[in-house]
Design goal:
single chain, 188 residues, elongated, Retrovirus-related Pol polyprotein from transposon TNT 1-94
């Protein structure tokens, strides 16, 4: 939702501790994109040399404004504990990198988390009294988490997982879908 001035969303996501860092990052990337500062956060601002043209100096000044805007957004979207980690940095890129190092974990930890998610995915079954929509939401939530750790899962794989893990009361529907549809064109 946009605020009355159209510049910022009415509510911003706040990173509290390190909980749900991946989801917070995804939301922040969208906000940075909306505010046209995503490149600044990723790549930083390049300094211009003393012999720069007026156009280059103006472009650098604009980039520095965007950097301040991005840093302001980051400051607004972290709790006090995370703010203390980034309070002395002067660029959005530095702040973002500090938060990533503090919360994203190393590659080994990501691999362990992905293995745990894969196991949950393999064992996932629809509960006997569960509504199909709720089960589908559980599957999508889990697959989105797996994707955030680098797993490649196609829509077809998700559809196939749902069809083979529905409760037995849906067996006749699953057979009808498999017989009448090309599963390669169904999407999740």
């Amino acid at each position: 939702m946009a605020s009355s001035n159209g510049n910022f969303p009415a509510t911003l996501p706040v990173l509290e501790g390190g909980k749900k860092f991946d989801q917070w990052c995804a939301k922040m990337r969208v906000i940075f994109g909306f505010q046209d500062v995503l490149d600044i956060v990723k790549e930083g601002v390049q300094e211009v040399d003393s012999g720069a043209t007026e156009d280059q100096k103006a472009a650098n000044k604009e980039a520095k404004k965007k950097d301040c805007k991005a840093l302001f957004i980051i400051h607004q979207c972290v709790d006090m504990g995370n703010f203390e980690k980034i309070s002395n940095v002067t660029t959005a890129k530095e702040a973002w990198e500090i938060l990533e190092r503090a919360h994203a974990g190393n590659d080994k930890l990501k691999k362990v988390r992905l293995q745990t998610l894969r196991r949950q995915y393999e064992l996932l079954q629809m509960e006997g009294n569960e509504v199909v929509g709720a089960y589908f939401t559980r599957v999508l939530s889990l697959t989105n988490l797996m994707k955030s750790y680098g797993e490649r899962i196609s829509s077809q794989m998700i559809v196939e997982k749902v069809l083979r893990s529905l409760s037995p009361r849906f067996d006749h529907i699953v057979v009808a879908i498999e017989e009448s549809k090309n599963l390669e064109i169904l999407t999740s």
